Amino acid sequence: MRAIAFTALAFSTLAGCAAPVEPTPLPQAGVDPTVVEHPPLTESLGNDCAVIAAVARDHYQFNTTDNVPPPLWLDDEGSGWAPACDWSRHGLSFPARFDPDDRPQPQRVQWVSFKQPRYDSSGAVIETGILHGPLAGMGYECRVYSGFNGWTAGECKNTWIS
Prior knowledge:
Blueprint: H1 2-17, H2 41-44, H3 48-59, E1 72-75, E2 111-115, E3 118-120, E4 123-133, E5 136-147, E6 150-161
Parallel strand pairs: 1-2
Antiparallel strand pairs: 2-4, 3-4, 4-5, 5-6
C-alpha cells in the first residue's frame, strides 16, 4: 500500500513540473497552412561583404601581403547599394576605391568590381570583373556557397573579355 501511495505522490510531483502545452492555432479562412511566409532572401540571407570577400579571396586570390587587389568598385548600377564592409575581418584589404565618375581618371585605370549579390536557395550569385589596364580585363559570374566555414566561391563563368 505504501508503494502505491509513494508512486502516486511521485507521479503527481513530476506532472506538476511539466510545461503547459501551447494550443495550436486554428488555420485562418483563405490561408494555406502549408505556406510559410519568409522575408525576402536579400534580407534574410544577405551577407554581401562576406560574399564579395569569398570571391576576392577564392577566385582572384587577393590577400593583404603579396596579392593586394586593385581599387575596389562597388557597382551599384544606380540603386544606391553601398555595403560598409570591414575587409580586415575577412582577411582582405582594399586600399583604394574606384569611382567611374571621378574626373580626371588616373593615367592607368585599374579596378576590381562587384555588383550586388543575388541570393537563392543554393547560396548567391555575384557579377564581378577586373580591369588590369586599357583593353585588358575580364568579367565573371560566380556562384558562392554558404557553409560551416562561411562563404566560399565555387565556379566562375566568363561573361566578358576585353
